[in-house]
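Onboarding guide, step 5: your first structure request.
Type a short instruction followed by the sequence, for example:

Predict the 3D structure of this protein.
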Amino acid sequence: MELEEIRALRRALHQCPEPSGEEVRTKALLMDFLRARAGLELHPCGEGFYAARREPGGTRPPVALRADYDALLSLKTADYREETLEAFNQRLLDWANANEDAYNRINCDVIWDDCAVELTEEERAFATLTCRHSGTENGMMIRALHTGRAEQDPGFAASLPERTVERDGSVMAWGDLYYDVSYHVSDKSAVTVGERDACVGGMLSAISAFWQETDMEALLAMTEEDVAARFSAWAAAYSTAGVTFAPVTADSIHFEHADERSIYDGDRGGET
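The system replies with structure tokens like these:
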């Protein structure tokens, strides 16, 4: 990493001043810089992110215990989907305050998408969808109480696994996608957990299907604006009167790709 690159980053950061707690462009600049130059894993965390270096062959063992999940699943009542977000989020907040260590261990598993405890599909969805996003909504509420500012909309972000084309053991083409999506809940005392989960879960499923199932040649032909248009279409499709996704633009995602097969083929064509 060259010193001039770091200086250029500093200049870019100075050109995009943002209020504390609302550093959307700052976050994107830092993640782009680290993703391209530092060889680190970047993981969204609340409104920020953290960077990690994974040693070759290294793994991160899941940390949450069966007892942790059993305690969390006590919130999964027969009618929890019909509860308002206001009521359920308060129940989750009370439980998290009383079981802070267990809640933190489960959140680590959720962030890393790695769980050593055998869960049913419904139990896993309760932890990774319902509780994760209600926890984010609680975080926005608590931040607003501490800062005295208006409550920010919650959201979710992720760096998706790199898509590649390999030949002879070498990566010839690749694609990366990071996104940061937010949504607005019109009235927590009226919107139910089921409605919120259907909207957020639908959006997440659409993103996952796009990234996993789109042919690599089609991805390599796309621009960042093309991908943003897909996101905008899903945002409209999964919005309701109670849960509305913010418009998705190229500023909300980072999509880049490279295809070096022609270079490789040209080099091989020149061999004698």
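Each response can be followed by summary notes, for example: The chain has two domains: 66-147, 154-272.
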